[in-house]
Every structure is written in structure tokens, then in C-alpha cells.
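JOB MANIFEST
job_type = single_chain_structure
chain_count = 1
residues = 174
[input]
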Amino acid sequence: MTYYFTLPGLGGSDENHWQSLFESALPNIKRIEQGDWDNPACEEWIKTVDEAIDGYDLSEVVFITHSLGGITFSHWFNKYQKKIKGALIVAPPNLDVAPSELGLDSFLPVPKNQIPFPTILVASTNDPWADLDASKSIAESWGSDFVNAGALGHINTASGIGEWPEGLKILEKL
């Protein structure tokens, strides 16, 4: 049985975000709740991720990440080196160009090592947080399959994608 864990980004995911809607649509799914969605600290966030999956059969765990959740996932893997079934990584931001006032410095540098299990990185052609070339580059360094989702902005609530059935189809590939 597959266990899904959503990892939202900065600010969390509101009730209309595709991650929240996935949580209503998929069985065996749980959001990893961070202590402070608005003031992220990398070490705290990755510790929360590791604690959330403790006791699960890791060969059946799939992460569904959005934005900073994808960067958190990469740091979690880099620190703990635990293999899971796979990860859907949606719209990871390019932190090298993120404004410093967002307080994301604890997530730098972003790990660039290969991830030895299936991952799919989905990016948009007009994401204000990462241009397509930066997204392709991180996908290549992580060994992720790359999906160009077209012009969907940051692939969030503001993108107007609702339940995002295309995202569910991509998830099925894992």
C-alpha cells in the first residue's frame, strides 16, 4: 500500500491548492505539518519530515512536494539518505535568486546530488520563482524526470488549476 505525504512550501497550502485537493482525493495521504509555515528553518523542517515518516515502510512512501517543500525534500534526502518509493516535486524555487527578506538562507545551498529513486520534477514556463532553465538544471542534477507543465505560473492556487488532474496523472507514473 502506498502512503502519500504532502510537503507544502512557504506559507503552506490553502484549501483550494491542488495539494489540499489531492489530500481529499487520494487514500492513505497525510500532510506534513511544519511548526511555522511563514518562518521556515531548514533543519527544523527536515527533522519534521523525518519524524512524520517514522514507522512507515519507506519502500511505500511517496512525497508530493510543492515549492519550498521540494527543496526541503532534497535537504531531507541529503541528510538522512533514506530511500523511499518516489517523489513528485512541483515548482521548486530557484533560491539562488530569491529575495533575502524571505528568510530562506538556511535552505542554501540547495543539494545537487543524485537521488537514487524515482522522482519527477514538474515546472512551469512562467514560474516567477524559477525559470525553466533553472528547473531543468535541478531536475538533471537530482536525476529527476522532467515535465514542462506549460504556462501555469507557480503551479499553485493562483494558477487556477483546481484539482489538477494532470498532476494526478503524473503522480501515477511513480
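[summary]
The first helix runs from residue 18 to 25.
Residues 13 and 20 are 7 Å apart (CA to CA).
exit_status = 0
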